[in-house]
Amino acid sequence: MKNLLEKFSIKDKTCIITGGAGLLGLQHAKAVLEGEGVPVLLDISEEALQRAKNLLSEEYPNNEISIYKVDITNESELEKTRENLLKEYGHIDILINNAANNPKMEKKSSNLGNIRFDNFPIEIWLEDVAVGLTGAFLCSKIFGKSMEDNGQGVILNISSDLGVIAPDQRIYREEGKAAEDQTVKPVTYSVIKHGLVGLTKYLATYWADKNIRVNTLCPAGVENGQDEGFIKRLTNLVPMGRMANVDEYQSTVLFMISDASSYMTGAMVIVDGGRTCW
Questions:
Q1: Minimal CA–CA distance to 190: which of 252, 260, 270, 102?
Q2: Number of Cβ atoms within 10 Å of the Cβ of 16
Q3: Pairing with 2, which of 46, 50, 205, 238 sits 20 to 30 Å away (CA)?
Q4: In this structure, are strands 212-219 and 268-271 parallel, antiparallel, or unpaired?
Q5: Concatenated DSSP letters for 143-171?
Q6: What is the 8-class DSSP label of residue 206?
Q7: How does pLDDT run along the chain (278 residues), one tens digit per residue?
């Protein structure tokens, strides 16, 4: 029988991370590496993937790290990736559905700006849903089949505190701007993040007898060079009075993808500094 700390080990387990070259994707990969697993980063940018691999290899020089350029909205590309992974490793053990067209305050995003609900373009709606929700569905379907065939597996869907509550649009407002020029958190973000919770519950019950556990992590925003005014407005809503540090979700991720959480499925874990308490 494993002792308590041994339950956190995912030694030699193959862990797919979608959106693996992004800010949180890198942190999820570090969690996998700390647990002695093998992170497999999927992303749409070859350049970003190579940069992510280089960063991880500097910190973990003796660990294996795989990268695959994949469009997660393309079913045939995902099936090809699954076959390549099974040839290379023989098994797929963990899937972290992390990819999203994420609207960030610190970077210009096509889906973040003065795009109010009444003029929200259908093209952006379809693009965001395709990556954030349909992509998670396809990855769960395709990689989950391998888990089912193998008799075990773990899927972790990365939602958000905004998968529990609605965005407070006041934190995006800037003094002196007309209402029609104010930045708005897009409707797609809330819909997708809530949708991932529903996908989690469906799959958790669907695969309960197949030894596949499915859970949701709902993290809050990470401080990453945002405007000081925005940070102040946001942290006023957080009982702990700050945003998350970039590495603060690693231990929770490792807990949720390892045997340390062996009796947890269909659950939603919120790590938000207490914001959803208010």
A1: 102
A2: 30
A3: 205
A4: parallel
A5: HHHHHHHHT-EEEEEE--GGGTS---GGG
A6: H
A7: 889 999 999 999 999 999 999 999 999 999 999 999 999 999 999 999 999 999 999 999 999 999 999 999 999 999 999 999 999 999 999 999 999 997 665 555 565 677 889 999 999 999 999 999 999 999 999 999 999 999 999 999 999 999 999 999 999 998 888 888 889 999 999 999 999 999 999 999 999 999 999 999 999 999 999 999 999 999 999 999 999 999 999 999 999 999 999 999 999 999 999 999 99
Round to whole Å and give the CA distance between 158 and 156. 6
Amino acid occupying residue 211: N
DSSP 244: B
Instruction: Report residue 11 as tokens.
Output: 């030694």
What single string gives the DSSP state of each residue in 26-58? HHHHHHHHHTT-EEEEEES-HHHHHHHHHHHHH
Structure tokens at 60: 């973990």
Q: Which structural domains are found in the chain, ordered by start?
A: 5-103+130-162+188-221+249-262 (3.40.50.720)
Amino acid residing at 254? L
Short-list 268, 147, 142, CA closest to 198: 268
Asked if residues 270 and 164 have their Cβ atoms less than 8 Å apart, the reply is: yes
- How many residues in the chain? 278
Residues 6+ apart with CB under 8 A from 84: 68
Amino acid residing at 137: F
